[in-house]
Amino acid sequence: TLDRLKDFVKFQATPAQARQVFVAVMRVGDQIAGTQDKDIVGGFVTINNQLRICWLLQEVLEKTGTPTERVQLVEDTLKVTVGLHTAAELVKVLGYQHGMYGSSDEKSPSPTPPLVAKESVVELAKLVVEKIEAEAFNGTLEAHPSFIGVVWHWRRFGQEDKALEWVRQLAESDKILVNI
Q: Which residues contact 99 (CB under 8 A, 6 or more apart)?
């Protein structure tokens, strides 16, 4: 399970193994999040695969060395095929550590040191937006199982006008509007 993988990364993995886990989870994170979660835990905050993936990726980044090395790992990974929603969620979480993207602590960032610098989060968000826009304009975003979540991130990362215009155009098709 994802919890066991997170524990492996935290307690046993070498930095090289942690990097391999990062790349693999970034590639298939959307599929993992989309599978039926038999270990879902309810309560105030639902603990599901999406949340476990976020925790795992943060654990991996903690194991990966300096903030510069972490940013390089994320940038390198974003150059290949990744789960679009997973990538956007990671950048959102990294931004939350700085009080960005509507986090509940906008005036008081995380008490623990952020995994990457705020300026790096802004640059990573731009890379994710480029990937989102590429999929939006080539017609593949609308088929993404979490496309509404991806569009939400697109808006959150500063491209609200583009995201809303894309959704408006998409909604003109009755077939696609039903799927929304």
A: 105, 106, 107, 108, 109, 110
Nearest-5° angle of CA 120, CA 125, CA 127?
100
Question: What pLDDT digit, counting tens, does each position of 102-156 carry?
Answer: 766 556 556 789 999 999 999 999 999 999 999 999 989 988 989 899 999 999 9
Alpha-carbon span 150 to 90, nearest angstrom? 12
CA-to-CA dists, residue 11 to 47, 71, 129, angstroms: 22, 22, 34
What is the distance between the alpha carbons of residues 93 and 86, in angstroms, rounded to a whole number? 11
Backbone angles phi, psi at 97, to 5 degrees: -65, -15
Residue 99: HSE in the Cβ half-sphere, 13 Å Cα cutoff: 7
User: In angstroms, rounded to a whole number, what is the distance separating the alpha carbons of residues 125 and 122?
Assistant: 5
